[in-house]
């Protein structure tokens, strides 16, 4: 669509909270935060700083089945976005200090969005009630105790498993040249090894044949 000189670039990783093992809830969302910690080429906060200085909207969010990163930017900067997204896929680096800092931020998000919000607490309990076996019942943001237990090495393993070209879908829309963009994708992503990822072994939710209720009382 060449109506306006703007491009939307979205990277969908086929991993979300349902891929988390028991005791590690919140790892997909915490990793989403850590992906902005930078590489040797683009240091901490530079991902936002560089693109937003060019008028871009930059953000990410974690869901149950996917983690999505996106940029909305002037069409003339599309190659820069492809370069930067491929670079952090290939060269992302985070330390124990980075993990501890982002862990605190995520825990504060939980306090604000869940523990200070009665409606959000109801929705969290509704998920658990609806899916007592299937991981759809798990909280996307994770529990406080699980967030405290997540180690740098565990998060790095999660990244190495799911953050690679064999497990992503890139969606581009707007004012761009299809053939030129394919060349850029090949140039910047072509050297990154990709492989198929086995989906998690998820136990099917048993048939539910009766009404279930829960009563919540808060001050």
Provide an overview of this structure.
With 219 residues, the protein is of the alpha+beta class. Helices cover 42% and strands 13% of the residues. The protein contains eight helices and four strands; from the N terminus they run E-H-H-E-E-H-H-H-H-H-E-H. A four-stranded antiparallel beta sheet has the order 2-3-1-4.
Keywords:
single chain; 219 residues; alpha+beta; 8 helices; 4 strands; 42% helix
Using the alpha-carbon principal axes, give the shape: globular
Biggest β-sheet, characterized?
Answer: 4 strands, antiparallel
Total helices: the number is: 8
Distance between the termini: 52 Å
Average pLDDT rating? 95
Order of helices and strands: EHHEEHHHHHEH
Rg for CA atoms = 19 Å
- Strand line-up in the sheet with most strands: 2-3-1-4
> Helix share of residues?
40-55%
* Backbone structural class: alpha+beta
Q: Low-confidence stretches at least 5 residues in length (pLDDT < 50)?
A: none
List the quaternary state of the chains: single chain
- How large is the share of residues in beta strands? 5-15%
Summarize the topology.
Layout: E1 6-13, H1 27-34, H2 46-52, E2 57-62, E3 67-74, H3 78-91, H4 96-115, H5 118-130, H6 144-149, H7 152-162, E4 168-174, H8 178-189
Antiparallel strand pairs: 1-3, 1-4, 2-3
Helix pairs in contact: 1-4, 3-8
């Amino acid at each position: 669509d060449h109506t306006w000189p703007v491009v939307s670039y979205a990277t969908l990783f086929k991993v979300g909270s349902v891929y988390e093992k028991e005791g590690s809830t919140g790892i997909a969302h915490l990793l989403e935060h850590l992906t902005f910690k930078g590489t040797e080429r683009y240091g901490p906060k530079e991902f936002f700083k560089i693109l937003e200085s060019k008028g871009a909207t930059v953000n990410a969010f974690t869901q149950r089945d996917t983690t999505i990163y996106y940029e909305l930017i002037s069409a003339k900067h599309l190659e820069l976005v492809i370069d930067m997204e491929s670079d952090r896929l290939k060269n992302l680096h985070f330390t124990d200090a980075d993990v501890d800092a982002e862990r605190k931020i995520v825990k504060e998000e939980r306090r604000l969005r869940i523990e200070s919000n009665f409606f959000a607490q109801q929705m969290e309990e509704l998920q658990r009630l609806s899916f007592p076996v299937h991981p759809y019942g798990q909280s996307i943001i994770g529990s406080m105790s699980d967030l405290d237990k997540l180690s740098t090495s565990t998060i790095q393993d999660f990244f190495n498993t799911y953050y690679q070209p064999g497990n992503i879908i890139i969606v581009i829309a707007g004012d761009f040249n299809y053939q030129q963009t394919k060349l850029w994708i090949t140039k910047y992503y072509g050297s990154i090894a990709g492989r198929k990822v086995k989906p998690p072994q998820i136990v099917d939710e048993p048939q539910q044949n009766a009404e279930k209720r829960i009563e919540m009382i808060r001050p």
